[in-house]
Design goal:
Radius of gyration: 39 Å
Number of domains: 2
Structural class: alpha+beta
Distance between the termini: 101 Å
InterPro entries: LysM, LysM_dom_sf
CATH class of the largest domain: Alpha Beta
Protein name: LysM peptidoglycan-binding domain-containing protein
Number of strands: 2
Strand content: 5-15%
Number of helices: 3
Organism: Sellimonas caecigallum
CATH topology of the largest domain: Membrane-bound Lytic Murein Transglycosylase D, Chain A
Helix content: 55-70%
Length: 131
């Protein structure tokens, strides 16, 4: 009888050892799945964040307006000057009036700043609306 009880005890120990091995395997599998889940979650958040940053690269037009450059032909009136036209048509905050005058002179192949009434002049103007 003593032998049978020892066998039962030793079997119980063996079973416990197997259960510990199984438990360790389960823990390892759980950790692996947890690690994979964390990597997938991190990758998903990274992709979503990058998409959000890229889509809002320019910001809202109300906050940071984008100016489109357009051209039109005007007839110079008596008293018009290039700097006066710059003040009237240079609505972009991205360039100074002097830079605008320089562009006007280059666009119209002008060497001097003098204007003649009735002269045809191509000017640039800016608008936040795309036409």
């Amino acid at each position: 009888m003593k032998n049978s009880s020892r066998n039962q005890i030793s079997m119980t120990r063996a079973e416990r050892g197997n259960k510990k091995k199984i438990s360790k395997k389960r823990q390892a599998a759980f950790r692996f799945r947890l690690l994979i889940g964390a990597v997938i979650l991190f990758a998903s958040i990274s992709v979503l964040s990058a998409g959000t940053l890229l889509s809002n690269a320019k910001g809202n037009r109300a906050e940071d307006p984008v100016y489109f450059e357009y051209y039109k032909n005007i007839e110079v009136k008596d008293g018009d000057t290039l700097h006066g036209l710059a003040k009237e048509y240079n609505t972009s905050i991205e360039q100074s009036d002097d830079a605008y005058v320089k562009k006007l002179k280059k666009l119209n192949h002008m060497k001097s700043s003098g204007l003649i009434p009735g002269q045809s002049l191509i000017i640039m103007y800016y608008d936040t609306e795309y036409k």
